[in-house]
Amino acid sequence: MNYPDVKMLISGEWRDSAQRQDVLNPATETPVGSVPLASAQDLHDALQAAKEGLRVWRRTSPMARGQVLTRAADLLRSRVDAIAHALVLEQGKLLTGGRGEVMRGCTLLDWDAAEARRLYGRIIPGDASTRNSAVREPIGVVAAFSPWNAPFASPMRKIAGALAAGCSLVLKPAEETPAGAWFIAQALQDAGLPAGVLNLVYGNPEEVSTTLIADPAVRMVTFTGSVSVGRKLSALAGSYLKPAIMELGGHAPVLVCRDSDPLAVAAKSVIAKSVNSGQICVSPTRFFAEEPVFEAFAQAFAEGARAVRIGNGMDAASQMGPLTNGRRVAAIHELVEDARNRGARVLAGGEKPAGPGYFYPLTVLANVPDDARVMREEPFGPLAVVNPVASLEEGIARANELPFGLAAYAFTESVKNLDAISTRVEVGSLAINHFSVSSAETPFGGVKDSGFGREGGIEGVEAYTVVKSISQWVG
Q1: Which residue among the candidates 115, 281, 455, 462 is catalytic per the annotation?
Q2: Is 167 a catalytic residue?
Q3: Residue 442, by phi and psi: left (phi above 0), alpha (psi -120 to 50) or beta?
Q4: Which of 247, 290, 378, 462 is catalytic?
Q5: What is the model's pLDDT at position 137?
Q6: 0.90 exceeded by the pTM?
Q7: Which end of the chain is more exposed for a tag (fewer CB within 10 A), N or C?
């Protein structure tokens, strides 16, 4: 299978550009394709198309909208092998991970397609002379920005929720990994989505975001990415009084209680930390193990990490692929060296292997001092920190001490511990005794510096609506 000939989609037509940017295979550091970069005229045309598409789509019944989305999900499932292949080439994930991402994305589309029919309003009792009601309507044109680490699932979250609610979109995916969104757009076109309802552009991130957010046609912004970029886009959206969904970075804590099985938790931790080479905003990163189980957990975690086979995602023997770009390799190694120089124990990994590709082993650091950078900065890669705590009380305090609050995990068999963790850990999503915090049915998003707004679940569709109150005089 070849990498697709990625193009922009504007007003239902595929559009190329004289200016294109290479897409690199992170396992080989060689180009696999290229992506067109939008001009100012392309952005103008996309916005105009979204305005026209909105007029049609918002008047389309929820049932008819859902049928289009469901057809697109079926088409995407039939194309899963080609899509997964492209995701591996552009992002580096394992082929099994690429297939899994596509299937999860299709589940999101199915869920939101059905949820569109349940955007209920309500009748509000009043006096004898009036009839009051409240209804939900699509908010309008949405400017959406998705990251490189989940090229299919992340744009799908935004596309599915907005389209289900009756909105139109201009979507800018990451230029490093453009194929996932291209496949989604293609399937929606084939499924009968009216022209202009979804528009796909690539280009200079600052230029595209500034142009789209400032345009009066855009009524909402949704972004997944770093805290630093999220701050800038939030401020820009706020200056135009436009609501936003910001799904930003995390530095997920894991509480390993003394009543848990440290070996079993370590085995699960190895798998969870190696998924997508740790390049997930909810990747478990800061492990706080109570002292009675700390050493057993740390050693088992390190032993499992050393056994993880890194390699090309196309190789069935690989258990973890490369990082997406060289910047991530450099950033991870800088964090490791900083912690090592401050006295941390390197239990596994910590050195880039020789040869081509953006590879870095699954790395476990223990007894990391508080002044190490990795204790404050999200590594966004295959790097885990394991530190002891004297009690669950201390563990919860350590979990909450950073400004991040996206996801957290805990392992315990105690109902008392469960209650303390559930009520006191400050995050948007919490998982107990497993490492899954997101599904189509559940709302997902962060608190504190990890953002605001929710994707997924009922909330993920309602986010793209506004409530209109109607009061009718009946005499």
Answers
A1: 281
A2: no
A3: beta
A4: 247
A5: 97
A6: yes
A7: C
